[in-house]
Amino acid sequence: MSEILSEVKVRTPKDYEGYKKPTWCPGCGDFSILSSLKKVAAEIGLDPVKTVVVSGIGCSGKSYAFFYANGVHTLHGRVLPVATGIKLGNPELFVIGLSGDGDALAIGGNHFIHTARRNVNIKLIIMNNQIYGLTKGQFSPTSNHGFVTVSSPYGSVEFPVDPVILALASGASFVARAFSGEPNSLTEIIKEAFLHKGFSVIDVLSPCVTYNKVNTYDWFRENIEFLPNGHDKENLTEAFTYATSFKGKIPIGIFYKKERPTYEELILDSSNPCREDLYCGRERVYELIETFSK
Amino acid sequence: MKEDVQVRIAGIAGDGSFITGEVLASLLKKIGYYVVTVKDFPSNIRGLPSNYTVRGSSKPVYGRNNYDDFLIAFDIPSIKTHLRDLKEGSVCIYDSRDGKELSDDLKKEGVFYVPLPLREIARKELGLELIKNMVASGVLSEIFGVDEEITDRVILENFKRKGEKVVELNKKAVLKGRELVRENHGRFPEFKLRKYNDPGRVLAMGNDFVSMGAIAGGCRFLAAYPITPSSEILEFLSKEMKKFGGAAIQAEDEISSINMAIGASIAGLRAMVASSGPGVALKTEGLSYAGMTETPLVIYYAMRVGPSTGLPTKTSQEDLLYIIFAGHGEFPRLILMPATPDELFYLTAEAFNFAEEFQIPVIILTDQFLAQNKFTIDKEKIDPKKVEIRRGKLVLNGNDIPRNNGFLLRYKIEEDGISPRIIPGIKEGVFGTTGYEHDEAGYGTEDEDNRVSMVKKRMSKIKHLIKRVPPPVLYEKKNAKIGIISAGSTFGPIMETMERLEKDGISVSFLRIVTLWPFPEDEVRKFVEDKEKIFIVEQNYKGQLRFLVENAIIDIHKNKIRGITKFSGRPFKPLDIEEKIREELK
Ligand SMILES: Cc1ncc(C[n+]2csc(CCOP(=O)(O)OP(=O)(O)O)c2C)c(N)n1
Ligand code: SF4
User: Fold this and answer.
1) Ligand 1 contact via A91 beta carbon (within 6 Å)
2) Which residues contact B391 (CB under 8 A, 6 or more apart)?
3) pLDDT for B19-40, tens place per residue?
4) Nearest CA in chain A to B259
5) Is A14 on the interface with B (CB under 8 A)?
6) What is the DSSP letter of B525?
């Protein structure tokens, strides 16, 4: 954790203002995610120089420009592989992934499963508005069955994927759900995710006020329910139980949290100084050549 | 005494032709021969026909010869398949399991046929039918006059990890093979090989040379998804990379692999991906992203036969035009086509320098023949110490770069088109990177003037790149009126063709293209202008290299051009080229 804390000054959310002002529609749920992100960053003293925000394509993906840190704006769906590469390239960097629901679970669905399995130390926030925003309102993998959109005029015949269940099933070591309209719990959850070592997924319900006229702030207020305080977060079975049925409502909170070795810890030999000196280890190349000339 | 020998071992997959070939290759290397192998295996694990050719020569060789001196056939159908590659004086040793006379259509005049009870001996005397292939190795060792001490050493090296029992059994099988020859003395033609002192040459697969070159060149990250014929890179580097502080990863798919490599490169590592046609197809979105974000990246591309899944284990040069244009939008790229073991090594190492200095994707383009076959080279010809590392405009302190609104100008417009390269986590400052068109700080903008200057900035690298890339190699013969142009793995058979023609007083010069892109237009034009006739040798149907040459030369020279193509999935033999040239000269 120490690597992400800035040594110098006490920070405020304003210190994390990005290169640009957000260009989202007024009222978009993503605003609240961004401001929680800044609050958490200030609270834990996140060092922008050692932080990389990796985002995908979509309204959500624009956020890399709205936050003061290194920003890598990747292709649609490719947040996680790029973030994995960055983490392996330099494990000291604090890597935050920002995805839309289409980005993370449709085009990037395969990467989602495998990054969770690997437990790469990336914090993934899914800005889940149950629709494709940037391409103007087609259904997404989290859209409800029967949801009418421009590309599902007769109602979506598909059933939604639940990011929490998928993350649990894929082996993510931190899994949570939050709601944009509940900034306090959202901030708390992001903070806990940031302090967790390992792949952390937060599914944030984030209304698209322009294209999604069903899953609105009011609708969510009526349909969400917080997980009980005493819930044993290290118990995967319990996490599944809450995730699959909870009083007929959408459960909010931290479902699961358990540390296990990260991918980069397992794959890299950190004692080796070759990262800086690329000439390092040359003798070993001679040895390799030697094995072929016996 | 023979100075050049070629043996083909054929059967169905599972017969052990592969291991026989490997053992033979080591044996030949150990008696001081230069070796080249040609694997011809199906995309299947067992049951389909396969064969393995090993050629040994006292001179360096990089391809197979026209005919086989020996054919070891584990089954009768294999004789039929390979009969056309036998000539007068060739020996066909076959398993006499059926005891039947060979049918007439399998008999070629001048070929010595030697039926041997390989299977039977293996089963009855060694208790393991599978080991018939080592009996065959014994037969060849005796005929070639290889010392027992050398065969023992090779067997130990090849079977050590399977335990002492296996080693002993294999040695016994080899001895049985030797006895067979001694007992049947007279049935074999004289074929003793000259014995040289073993200079300890390197014998390795093309993919091994590439892997070693990558490590020597400072590559510290590989992400790949297994695909023939590039998988050995993943296998090699998975074992070695960790020891150098890096990582080699088997990604969930090709899309992930290129994006991981891009991430690692953004974070400052020298990164590479390795793949083939279908995999590179999936990678093109990432390739274009690397182009826009100016992320250094090395792509190893071993071509196989297409389209689609094609013939996955066979060789081709069908993707030249594809990889030149792959990816949407316009961006500079460098494509290198090595042809020899030392080039596989050094060009791979050098690819990382070009990628970092110019902040572009660099493609190492090979094919199944180069990638998966073994070649020998004198050890001193690949020296890691000769590999330089040049990291280009990598900046490690943000205070050295101008800013806008506190953000470092990662994409600052410079005359040579190359901006300071910043990696995250350096001292002071942050920056942005995006696949959208962006301003100097790396943030998206649709401003018209910015777009124009950014395109110019990126594209202006090309004119600087051209001055630095490896030029074509010219093999010039005095007064040659005929020229050959080619690239990559066709090198070996072309060199031999030239020698053969020269013996008949036909001198031919050869221009071998090393940098496929940017295409060396000036050198090619000059070469073509100089000659009366030009043959373009390549392994595809359309004549893709020819297309590039014709595009580069002045129209009046077009009538000089003839194409020699092969697209069967098998590498050229010298004869394929020689015959076409002779025909044309008639
Ligand atoms: C490879 C590729 N396919 C399609 C697109 C077009 N595209 C842009 S954004 C988007 C969907 C965005 O939806 P989501 O990820 O849910 O993000 P949101 O805009 O809702 O925040 C699509 C399909 C693209 N940019 N790249
Ligand atoms: S379209 Fe929807 S998701 Fe996009 S900015 Fe507007 S409200 Fe937000």
Assistant:
1) no
2) A278, B356, B357
3) 999 999 999 999 999 999 999 9
4) A82
5) no
6) H
Instruction: Find tokens 């080591």 and name the residue.
Output: B26
Residue B532: predicted pLDDT:
97
- Token pair in block for residue B306: 């297409």
A194: nearest Cα among A112, A113, A121: A121
Q: Which pTM value belongs to this model?
A: 0.97
C-beta atoms surrounding B129 within 10 Å: 15
- pLDDT less than 50: residues of chain B: none
* Distance between CA atoms of residues B5 and A268, nearest Å: 46
Distances (CA, A) of A139 to A142, A151, A160, B118: 8, 7, 10, 67
b vs e for B482-521, b when ≥16 Cβ sit within 10 Å of the residue's Cβ?
A: bbbbbbbbbbbbbbbbbebbeeeebebbbbbbbbbbbbbe
In 3D space, the residue among B123, B18, B58, B65 whose CA is nearest the CA of residue B372 turns out to be B18
Q: Ligand 2 within 6 A of A164 CB?
A: no
* Residue closest by Cα to atom 1 of ligand 2: A133
3 state SS of B107: coil
pLDDT at B427: 83
Q: How far apart are CA B259 and CA A56, in angstroms?
A: 12
**Which of A82, A88, A268 lies closest to B259 in CB terms?**
A82
Q: Which residue of A has its CA nearest to B158?
A: A294
- Any ligand 1 atom below 6 A from CB of A106: no
What does DSSP say about strands B482-487 and B533-538: parallel, antiparallel, or unpaired?
parallel
Name every residue whose Cβ is closer than 8 Å to that of residue B183 and which is 6 or more positions away in sequence.
none
Pairwise CA distance, residues B582 & B532, whole Å: 15
Q: Does B252 touch chain A (CB under 8 A)?
A: yes
Q: Does B384 touch chain A (CB under 8 A)?
A: yes
| Matching residue, tokens 């595809």 | B540
Closest by Cβ to B244, choosing from A87, A272, A293: A272
In chain A, which stretches have pLDDT less than 50?
Answer: 1-2
Share of chain A above pLDDT 90, in %: 91
Among B470, B475, B471, smallest CA distance to B490 is for B475
Q: Which of B117, B139, B433 is nearest to B263 (CA)?
A: B433
With beta carbons less than 8 A apart as the criterion, state whether A263 and A119 touch. Answer: yes
User: What does the pLDDT read at residue A1?
Assistant: 47
Whether A286 contacts chain B with CB within 8 A: yes
Query: What is the pLDDT, as a whole number, of residue B15?
Result: 87
pLDDT of residue B59: 95
Measured in Å, residue B50 CA sits from the centre of ligand 2 at: 59
Rounded CA separation B317/B81 (Å) = 24
Nearest to B408 by CA among B400, B61, B28: B400
Interchain CB contact of A35 with B (< 8 Å): no
How far does residue A108's CA lie from ligand 2's centre (Å)? 20
Q: How far is the CA of A27 from the centre of ligand 2 (A)?
A: 8
Residue A36 CB-density burial (10 A; 0-12 exposed, 13-18 middle, 19+ buried): buried
Nearest to B337 by CA among B193, B488, B548: B488
Write down the pLDDT at residue A6.
53
Contacts of A49 in chain B (CB under 8 A): 398, 424-430
> ipTM exceeding 0.95?
yes
d(CA A254, CA A276): 39
Q: Amino acid identity, residue A176?
A: A
The partner residues of B2 in beta bridges, in order of sequence, read B193
The pLDDT score that the predictor gives to residue A4 is 56
pLDDT on residue B586: 87
The predicted pLDDT at position A294 comes to: 85
